[in-house]
Amino acid sequence: xxxxxxxxxxxxxxxxxxxxxxxxxxxxxxxxxxxxxxxxxxxxxxxxxxxxxxxxxxxxxxxxxxxxxxxxxxxxxxxxxxxxxxxxxxxxxxxxxxxxxxxxxxxxxxxxxxxxxxxxxxxxxxxxxxxx
Length: 132
Known about the structure:
Layout: H1 8-14, H2 17-23, E1 43-47, E2 53-56, E3 60-61, E4 69-70, E5 79-84, E6 91-96, E7 102-107, E8 117-120, E9 125-129
Antiparallel strand pairs: 1-2, 1-9, 3-4, 4-8, 5-6, 6-7, 7-8
Protein backbone atom coordinates (compact mmCIF):
# COMPACT_ATOMS: atom_id res chain seq x y z
CA UNK A 1 0.00 0.00 0.00
CA UNK A 2 1.29 3.45 -0.91
CA UNK A 3 1.60 5.84 2.02
CA UNK A 4 -0.79 8.32 0.39
CA UNK A 5 -3.47 5.59 0.23
CA UNK A 6 -3.67 5.05 4.00
CA UNK A 7 -7.06 5.71 5.50
CA UNK A 8 -7.62 8.25 8.23
CA UNK A 9 -8.23 5.37 10.66
CA UNK A 10 -4.86 3.82 9.75
CA UNK A 11 -3.08 7.14 10.34
CA UNK A 12 -4.85 7.59 13.65
CA UNK A 13 -3.84 4.09 14.77
CA UNK A 14 -0.18 4.64 13.78
CA UNK A 15 0.48 8.15 15.06
CA UNK A 16 0.45 9.45 18.64
CA UNK A 17 -2.59 11.72 19.11
CA UNK A 18 -0.59 14.98 19.21
CA UNK A 19 1.25 14.13 15.97
CA UNK A 20 -1.99 12.97 14.35
CA UNK A 21 -3.68 16.27 15.23
CA UNK A 22 -0.93 18.28 13.50
CA UNK A 23 0.00 15.99 10.61
CA UNK A 24 -3.43 14.76 9.56
CA UNK A 25 -5.86 17.35 11.03
CA UNK A 26 -3.76 20.44 10.19
CA UNK A 27 -3.32 21.45 13.80
CA UNK A 28 -0.65 23.76 15.18
CA UNK A 29 1.40 23.31 18.32
CA UNK A 30 1.69 26.30 20.67
CA UNK A 31 4.70 28.56 19.95
CA UNK A 32 7.95 27.71 21.77
CA UNK A 33 6.53 24.35 22.88
CA UNK A 34 8.06 22.15 20.18
CA UNK A 35 10.95 19.76 20.64
CA UNK A 36 12.98 21.20 17.73
CA UNK A 37 12.57 24.96 18.24
CA UNK A 38 16.07 25.33 19.70
CA UNK A 39 17.79 22.24 18.24
CA UNK A 40 21.20 23.10 16.82
CA UNK A 41 22.57 19.62 16.03
CA UNK A 42 23.55 18.63 12.49
CA UNK A 43 21.16 16.32 10.70
CA UNK A 44 18.01 16.00 8.66
CA UNK A 45 14.44 16.73 9.68
CA UNK A 46 12.12 14.09 8.24
CA UNK A 47 8.35 13.78 8.02
CA UNK A 48 6.91 12.59 11.33
CA UNK A 49 4.40 10.43 9.44
CA UNK A 50 6.35 8.78 6.62
CA UNK A 51 10.04 9.57 7.21
CA UNK A 52 10.62 11.47 3.95
CA UNK A 53 13.60 13.87 4.12
CA UNK A 54 12.27 17.42 4.38
CA UNK A 55 14.73 19.95 5.83
CA UNK A 56 18.44 20.10 6.63
CA UNK A 57 19.86 21.59 9.80
CA UNK A 58 22.05 23.64 7.42
CA UNK A 59 18.99 25.69 6.37
CA UNK A 60 17.52 26.07 9.88
CA UNK A 61 17.52 29.53 11.47
CA UNK A 62 16.13 31.22 14.56
CA UNK A 63 13.12 33.20 13.36
CA UNK A 64 11.97 34.12 16.87
CA UNK A 65 8.46 32.90 15.99
CA UNK A 66 8.42 29.87 18.29
CA UNK A 67 8.49 27.20 15.58
CA UNK A 68 11.43 25.56 13.79
CA UNK A 69 12.16 27.66 10.71
CA UNK A 70 14.06 26.81 7.54
CA UNK A 71 14.85 28.86 4.44
CA UNK A 72 14.62 25.88 2.04
CA UNK A 73 13.60 22.21 1.95
CA UNK A 74 16.17 19.48 1.29
CA UNK A 75 14.62 19.12 -2.19
CA UNK A 76 11.89 21.36 -3.59
CA UNK A 77 10.06 18.25 -4.80
CA UNK A 78 9.80 16.82 -1.26
CA UNK A 79 7.17 19.36 -0.20
CA UNK A 80 4.01 20.73 -1.77
CA UNK A 81 2.52 24.19 -1.31
CA UNK A 82 -1.21 24.90 -1.12
CA UNK A 83 -3.30 28.06 -0.61
CA UNK A 84 -4.74 28.19 2.92
CA UNK A 85 -7.59 30.62 3.55
CA UNK A 86 -8.39 29.52 7.12
CA UNK A 87 -8.61 31.75 10.18
CA UNK A 88 -9.60 34.81 8.10
CA UNK A 89 -6.18 35.11 6.43
CA UNK A 90 -4.38 33.88 3.36
CA UNK A 91 -1.29 31.77 3.91
CA UNK A 92 0.59 29.05 2.05
CA UNK A 93 0.38 25.60 3.63
CA UNK A 94 3.36 23.22 3.38
CA UNK A 95 2.66 19.49 3.12
CA UNK A 96 4.84 16.40 2.69
CA UNK A 97 4.69 15.36 -0.96
CA UNK A 98 5.16 11.71 -0.06
CA UNK A 99 2.20 11.32 2.30
CA UNK A 100 0.26 14.58 2.17
CA UNK A 101 0.75 15.38 5.85
CA UNK A 102 0.45 18.98 7.05
CA UNK A 103 3.81 20.42 8.14
CA UNK A 104 3.20 24.13 8.62
CA UNK A 105 3.29 27.25 6.44
CA UNK A 106 5.79 29.19 4.34
CA UNK A 107 6.16 32.97 4.39
CA UNK A 108 8.22 35.41 2.31
CA UNK A 109 10.01 37.06 5.24
CA UNK A 110 12.98 34.69 5.61
CA UNK A 111 16.72 35.22 5.19
CA UNK A 112 18.89 35.02 2.08
CA UNK A 113 19.42 33.16 -0.10
CA UNK A 114 15.71 32.34 -0.63
CA UNK A 115 13.89 35.01 1.39
CA UNK A 116 11.53 32.25 2.57
CA UNK A 117 10.61 31.10 6.07
CA UNK A 118 9.25 27.57 6.25
CA UNK A 119 7.56 27.70 9.67
CA UNK A 120 7.16 24.03 10.59
CA UNK A 121 5.57 22.30 13.59
CA UNK A 122 8.03 20.19 15.63
CA UNK A 123 5.27 17.58 15.94
CA UNK A 124 5.32 17.21 12.14
CA UNK A 125 9.00 16.27 12.21
CA UNK A 126 11.43 13.63 13.41
CA UNK A 127 15.16 14.31 13.50
CA UNK A 128 17.96 12.13 12.18
CA UNK A 129 21.32 13.18 13.60
CA UNK A 130 24.21 13.36 11.20
CA UNK A 131 26.71 10.65 12.02
CA UNK A 132 30.27 11.84 12.49
